[in-house]
Design brief:
single chain, alpha+beta, OB fold (Dihydrolipoamide Acetyltransferase, E2P), four-stranded antiparallel sheet, 1 helix, 4 strands, about 15% helix, about 45% strand, ssDNA-bd, single-stranded DNA binding, Primosome_PriB/ssb, Single-stranded DNA-binding protein
C-alpha cells in the first residue's frame, strides 16, 4: 500500500549556477537551483571507468527556501 504524504529526496551534487531567490506577490520566497549529480562505474567489457551526469532543476518554497539559501550561498 502506498503511503500518503510527502516524498523526501536527498540529492548530493554540484550547483550548476548561483541559486536564484525571488519573492512571490504574496511574500513567499522561492529559490531555483540547478544541481548536477553523477554516477561512475567500471564497464565490464572494456574495464574502462564510465561516468554519467544528470542535471536536476530544483525549486524550493517558503521557510525551507530561506534556510537552504543560507547553507548554499
Amino acid at each position: 500500500m502506498a503511503s500518503k504524504g510527502v516524498n523526501k529526496v536527498l540529492l548530493i551534487g554540484h550547483l550548476g549556477q548561483d541559486p536564484e531567490m525571488r519573492y512571490l506577490p504574496n511574500g513567499d520566497a522561492v529559490t531555483n537551483i540547478t544541481l548536477a549529480t553523477s554516477d561512475s562505474w567500471k564497464d565490464k567489457q572494456s574495464g574502462e571507468t564510465k561516468e554519467r551526469v544528470e542535471w536536476h532543476r530544483v525549486v524550493i518554497f517558503g521557510k525551507t527556501c530561506r534556510n537552504r539559501w543560507r547553507i548554499s550561498a
